[in-house]
Specification:
By secondary structure, the protein is mostly helical. Helices cover about 75% and strands about 0% of the residues.
């Protein structure tokens, strides 16, 4: 889905346009056309960003049902719908249902696209994050390690998605208390991101924030303080660079990000191609 914020418009402002697009597709192409499913998916994802989960869920469920019927139960777009709905369910706290959808999507990816396809790695990445939330860190580590291996082999050792996998595996190891194993992953992730996408990119600042937390846990207070300062400066510079595209009202939550960022996993439900 194209992000509403890129044009400086709020999701609420964009919602009528998404609804109009859906109405047109339903009337002209039919209620079970794949473009109608795409519009339902886009509207559902927009509603999710607005926090209206109750309204988002039926949209995403309809999109999945259409894709299953029109494209088939093992089509990559069907897998994408499974991922999108699973991601919403994870947000809603229905972890068991989300896990089922992620696992179905992963099985389709492996069978249809191949076990070493970038999309397979994306599904493994999402599954690993959910497994961590469900306190199954052994399974999460396996999923993250598989995703990293695929990305290193297929995308290359210095691809931004490879760096995301390095960050995710490193952060998981931090939460597991294996600081010695975590540190090289986080350092590699940050080094790649600074070179490839820039120090001000949100992915880079997230990796830097995770490394800062690790250094603090190790008692390396001077290094942690340095990383904290660099992270604040990078976030401030990034927010300042994007604020001109937003209204004054939209700028307020963006500015608050400078003091509320926390370490976490990276990589949403986007599908690699």
């Amino acid at each position: 889905m194209r992000k509403a914020g890129r044009s400086g418009r709020s999701p609420r402002t964009c919602k009528p346009y998404y609804e109009q697009a859906l109405a047109i597709n339903k009337e002209i192409l039919g209620p079970k056309h794949r473009s109608t499913a795409t519009s339902l998916n886009n509207l559902g994802s927009l509603l999710q960003t607005m926090g209206d989960f109750a309204a988002a869920k039926p949209c995403l469920e309809q999109a999945l049902a259409i894709n299953k019927e029109v494209l088939g139960p093992k089509h990559p777009e069907t897998a994408a719908s499974l991922i999108t709905l699973g991601y919403l369910l994870e947000w809603m706290g229905d972890y068991a249902a989300a896990k089922s959808y992620f696992e179905q999507a992963l099985a389709i990816d492996r069978e249809v696209l191949g076990p070493k396809h970038p999309t397979t790695a994306s599904s493994l990445n999402l599954l690993g994050g959910l497994q961590h939330v469900m306190e199954d860190d052994v399974a999460a580590r396996s999923s993250f390690e598989q995703a990293l291996a695929i990305r290193r082999e297929v995308l290359g050792p210095r691809h931004p998605d490879t760096a995301l996998s390095l960050n995710n595996l490193g952060y998981l190891l931090v939460t597991m208390g294996d600081y010695a194993a975590a540190k090289p992953y986080l350092e590699q992730a940050l080094e790649i991101q600074k070179e490839v996408i820039g120090a001000q990119h949100p992915d880079a600042t997230e990796s830097q924030n995770n490394l800062m937390s690790l250094e603090a846990a190790l008692g390396n207070w001077d290094r942690a303080a340095q990383l904290a300062t660099e992270t604040r400066q990078a976030v401030r510079a990034h927010v300042t660079s994007v604020l001109p595209g937003f209204s004054q009202k939209q700028q307020l939550p963006a500015r608050s990000m400078q003091s509320t960022r926390r370490g976490k996993f990276r990589g949403g439900p986007h599908r690699a191609r």
